[in-house]
Amino acid sequence: MGAVLYYIFVLPFLYFISILPFWILYGIADVFYVLMYYVIGYRKKVVYENLKNSFPEKSHAELKKIERKFFRYLCDLFLETLKTLTISKRAAIKHCAFSPETIRIFQLLNEQKKSCIIVMGHFGNWEWAGNSFSLLLEQQLYVIYHPLTNKQFDKLMYNMRTRFGNKLYAMKDTMREMIRNRHEVNVTAFIADQTPSPEGAYWTTFLHQDTPVFWGTEKIAQKLNFPVVYVTVNRPKRGYYVVHAEILVEIPKDTKEGEISELHTRKLEKDILHQPEIWLWSHRRWKHKRKKPADV
After folding, report:
1. Which is it for strands 209-213 and 116-120: parallel, antiparallel or unpaired?
2. Model's pTM, two decimal places?
3. What residues contact residue 149 under an 8 Å CB cut-off, 6+ apart?
4. Between 216 and 68, where is the model more confident?
5. Residue 139 and residue 257: Cα distance in Å, rounded?
6. Could you give the CA distance from residue 240 to residue 132 in angstroms, rounded to a whole number?
7. Could you please report the per-residue DSSP string of the chain?
């Protein structure tokens, strides 16, 4: 019965929202913001606690200002993601452009027949960045994702993310699939700011806090010796994003343990300090604590 209701009511409603023009879409986002922030209070405690620990030098008023900006961005992000269902190729590129330098980096890698690894965070609109990549560049883009438990919504997200030619790796299959496709010139995107299990993670200081980082990006890059490219998605104004990239490590096999993880963590931290409201503060990034020697 749940699946029937989804296909009869929920899916048509989502498509209806998706076809609305941007000015109406952002009007709806403004209404969502009032409901989410002032009425429901969705994860406000988590967001404020994360902000307070990350910016100990800021006053309560400054933190609340960032908090409100973040919730406005979060509502925009939700509806922008829905827009992916029906957005045209032209509009996708217009609303999420790649800088000329970024395009050139990937063109050169393609000309050199080098596959690479993208490392980025939940910063800006990472979904739109993936769409624009496939529309602007020649390499096949693979995106690592966590399948959702709800089959209907998992299929919806899968279709949205692959609509313009991207392909997906389930996280548990990443290494196997990358090895299987190693003879193809491609790009694999890792979202590096998710929360790993504290055991076996790389620990560093990130935004003034002990933070575990997945080893996966670094270990896979070293094993396959794929160049690592850091990508950031800035938002110059509402509804528009610009993707910037830089080669972080050209020869991963020559790096020391922890070097790649430290490099991309510092880059993300710098981005967040520059535009804090467009990082995913509602994520429970610091739910694990580093064990002290006496605890081991």
Report:
1. unpaired
2. 0.93
3. none
4. 68
5. 29
6. 12
7. -HHHHIIIIIHHHHHHHHTS-HHHHHHHHHHHHIIIIIII-TTHHHHHHHHHHH-TTS-HHHHHHHHHHHHHHHHHHHHHHHHTTT--HHHHHHHEEE-HHHHHHHHHHHHTT--EEEEE-SBS-HHHHHHHHHHH-SSEEEEEE---SSHHHHHHHHHHHHTTS-EEEEGGGHHHHHHHTTTS-EEEEEETTS---STTPEEEEETTEEEEE-SHHHHHHHHHT--EEEEEEEEEETTEEEEEEEEEES-GGGSPTTHHHHHHHHHHHHHHHHSGGGB-TTS-TT-S-PPPGGG-
237-247 pLDDT per residue, tens? 999 999 999 99
Domain boundaries, the chain: 2-290
The two structure tokens encoding residue 178:
């990358």
In this predicted structure, what is the pLDDT of residue 188? 97
Q: Looking at residue 251, what is its pLDDT?
A: 97
Per-residue pLDDT reduced to its tens digit, 167-205? 999 988 999 999 999 889 999 999 999 888 888 899 999
For the cut 50, the answer to whether the pLDDT of residue 165 exceeds it is: yes
The residue to which tokens 């992000």 are assigned: 77
Total residues belonging to the chain:
296
Q: How sure is the predictor about 261, in pLDDT bands with cuts at 50, 70 and 90? A: very high
